[in-house]
Amino acid sequence: MRLTTLATASLALFASTVLAVGAPKGDITAGKQRFEATPEGGQSCASCHLEGGAKSIDGNTPLLAGQYADYLEKALKDYRSGARVNVLMNAQIGPDGTNPLTDADIQNITAYLASQRSSLHIYESAKSD
Ligand code: HEC
After folding, report:
1. In terms of residue numbers, what domain contains 98?
2. What is the total count of domains within the chain?
3. Taking CA 75 as the corner, what is the angle to CA 72 and CA 76, rounded to the nearest 5 degrees?
4. Maximal CA-CA distance, the chain
5. pLDDT tens across 82-105, in order?
6. CA-CA distance, 43 to 38, in Å (whole number)?
7. Is residue 1 part of a domain?
8. Does the beta carbon of 34 sit less than 6 angstroms from any atom of ligand 1?
9. Ligand 1, atom 30: nearest CA belongs to which residue?
10. Of 102 and 56, more confident
11. Which of 73, 88, 101 to mutate to test the pocket of ligand 1 (most atoms within 8 A of CB)?
């Protein structure tokens, strides 16, 4: 009995630690707003990556929904600094971009995108699109 209690408590502690480590830091609601916001003279992220980043306007524009937040964060910081080169993304968030992102924007947007349902691993739904 005592051993069971101890085992249960250890498991609960382990699970909450794993979840806390894996959870994105940003604010999902703020991230959604920022992803959909149209800056003056520019265009919104959602205009190419569509709602929640779950689809996209063409085959060159990647799906973002359900992707790991830390992967997305690295991608955005690399476009922002110019370390990752893509004419469309650098024109959005690069040094002279029309939709520049702060570190907080990046944390919020990546938390939002990571929280979205992905179609990447659902073969049947991808097939019917
Ligand atoms: C004009 C269309 C367009 C707009 C607007 C746009 N993107 Fe992109 N995005 C792209 C394309 C095209 C790529 C693929 C670039 C490449 O191959 O490196 C991309 C790549 C990305 C990636 C990397 C994905 C990966 O799998 O590596 C992220 C993250 C991203 N965009 C987020 C955003 C965010 C956030 C915004 C708004 C600030 C935004 N995008 C605005 C077209 C766009």
Report:
1. 26-128
2. 1
3. 85
4. 66
5. 999 999 999 999 989 999 999 999
6. 5
7. no
8. no
9. 76
10. 102
11. 88
